[in-house]
Design goal:
Adenine-n6-DNA-methyltransferase TaqI, Chain A, domain 2, four-stranded antiparallel β-sheet, 20 strands, Helix Hairpins, single chain, 3 domains, alpha+beta
Amino acid sequence: MQMNNVPFDWKINKLGNVADVFDGTHQTPEYVDHGIKFISAEDISDPSASTKYITHQAFENNFKIRPNKNDIFMTRIGRIGIPFLLKTDEDFAYYVTLALLKLKRDVVPEYLFYFIQSNYFQFELWKRTLHVAFPEKINKDEIGKCLVLYPDNITEQKKIAEILGTWDRAIEALTGLIAEKKELKRGLMQRLLSGTQRLPGFTKPWQNKKIGDITHIATAVSKSQYIKETGPYLIVDMGAVSNEATLIAKKQTDYEGDFLIRDDLIMPKDDIGGGNIIGKTVVIDYNNKYILGDHVFKIRVTSVECAKFISNLINSFGVNKYMRRVSTGSAQLGLAKRDVEKCVLFVPTELAEQKAIADVLSKADSEIDLLNQQLELLKEQKRGLMQKLLTGEIRVKVDAATC
């Protein structure tokens, strides 16, 4: 990615010329119950939230270079180039998966924090991993060779950072609102799906029903060989269900067979990792748009039940806990059809009550979906603004007295 039309009053410099770059410790730490927080790449989103500690003595012995306020941590292993700007003087011990940047001249920390996130700097990092054996790793010397573009005027740097900070605060506020809405929905699900809170007008008792008595469960073979970028249909397999039980099918195909119909439920029966998706369900919303793939169950309701209610009930904490508990395996978890069929659901006897509960929860989902769309729009707008502000394509006004 070439930087063209750089403003005459901006500089291009190596990161190592404007900041010292340090590695964390290579030693595997001995954790204790309290002391100095120890952080690694997995803690980059919020180092203060780390629950890992080493002793004060170990910190004194092993960390001569210590982080201070306005220093920047940056991941250098795995998903490299994720920064975190320290806003306090809290002590942190840090692992080799992180680099520590200490500014020494020319650039304010808030500006550098945003520039590291820019497409330009991320491309610089990527270029410097092409010639190494492990492309998901970059050493501190290579980080220091990455080029940084910045206004010569410190005030302009600060103003750019202030503008982007405004977007970050809006993103943070909306992210917090989404988290609140999700928590409210979880509470609502717990009450409505257990029968502890009844909707107005419904008084008839609920009853236990086995999933196998009210549904038919089927599987299909892999459709990987039929993937086609311009295909009119979408394959629904293990990767098509998110850990929040939403449909995220992306693989296209022109294969015509194993069609799913509206109100079919899809449940991942295998999961590589911690079981975050296994046993959760999504509801198919259109006829003949989706093709059943592998590693999932197709659950078709065969009795007079509301498919969306049944899906919500399966995704509720108690039922999904059962699904994860009966799963077997280590590296890859597997869920047996017979165990799903044996699972007992507590359901309203009235179909109208099932539909009413499903409608309430669908409205909550729609509200969360709308907020998520707004969040993605904010993030996209911020990315576009960063591209223009951090390359000088758009200039901010600076008083002549500060130039």
